[in-house]
Amino acid sequence: MIKLYLKQAWQLLKQNKLFSAVYILGTGLGIALTMTLVIIYYVKMAPVYPEGNRNRMLVCKGVCMESRKSDNMSSSDASYKMVKQFYYPLKKAEAVSAVYDRVDASFIEIPENKELKEVHLKLTDSDFWKVFTFSFVSGKPFTKADLDAGLRVAVISRSLSHSLFGNADAVGKNFLLDANEYRVTGVVQDVSFITPATYADVWLPYTTDASAMEIDEKNGDGMLGDFYVYMLAPSVLAMDEVTDEVCETVRKYNFSQDKYLMKIYGQPVPYWKSIFYEYSNAAPDWNELLRKYGIILFALLFVPALNLAGMISSRMTRQLSELGIRKAFGASKRELIKQIFWENMLLTSLGGVLGLLLSYIIVYLGRNWLPALFDSFPGMVPDGIDTFFTPGMLFNPTVIAVTFVFCLLLNVLSAIFPALYALRKSIVYSINEKK
Known about the structure:
By secondary structure, the protein is α+β, with helices and mostly antiparallel strands. It is built from 13 helices and 16 strands.
């Protein structure tokens, strides 16, 4: 029966070309804008290269130290002291990595022409390579022994390796970075700027930069610094255990001294929540975020649905005589609803395919500014950086499934309700209605 409905729908599509074209285009535009938002936030939240463990990753971005004896309050990211005392000893976490977030512009010397090229650094530790899922083209990551010894070793991106050494294997070779010589231990696939937790051209042990381990004991008991901390739980179900262990460590610290009160504002949090933490001294207002994105989705989905419902209602008026004849020959309301559903499902599906293709085009053209569109403090893409999306970020079952769900919702909202209203008419009224 569904096959028959789809054949009828195809004939109606060819008979009403203008209506069909407008309906498909309207559906496509509504879905395109919605799917653009879905794709951007899928890339930000879902497991993608090289952050394939996001589903069991916890993040701590900030800490606030309140004086118990005055109204003074200081907040920042975690210091090296806090990382060593609070995070590295965690027993429930599979791996803990600290990433130094305060890195000035650095320049690397290109041997071929002796020119200096600006590169982006990420200073971190040996567990960084366990928490994140980098794909090594050659070599391996630096080790804990390298970190502890403060050796000038580095992992570099594939594109930088090509710029420095051409097609030759870079592992074991040396290069000059900020006038210091470093040895390459490994080469990884390039990382997109859209994954800021891992994006860089060069990854170094943070012990190569003395400022990373500086501790200001006079400010917040030495707990304030410039480290983000990423914790990998053994499983999704074990994430709460890691969070509880961190909270217990903070509770014991606050109980043990009377000078400062440490607050971490609900952290550590799952990776998807961490992207909404924009201040080190406050948690996001989740109700406000829900309202914000609810309004956006309403504008992108339900407003087009209302417009399409008006078009469907107009077409229902012209189809009343056909529906009346079918009712006279014994067709039930359920059968008629199924017919209308599948007829419009064909149009909506065509609009969905068009919308998905348009969303990919929009994402590609706006790749350097769209990811930060709804951020309170949007970061600018550095000059010379072209944000890219891997095929796994775009062509995945989740995005396709969401597209189908949106098509279904649009179909129900724009077609079923007008159809139910039309089918309330009596058989005599429907048969005598002019086309």
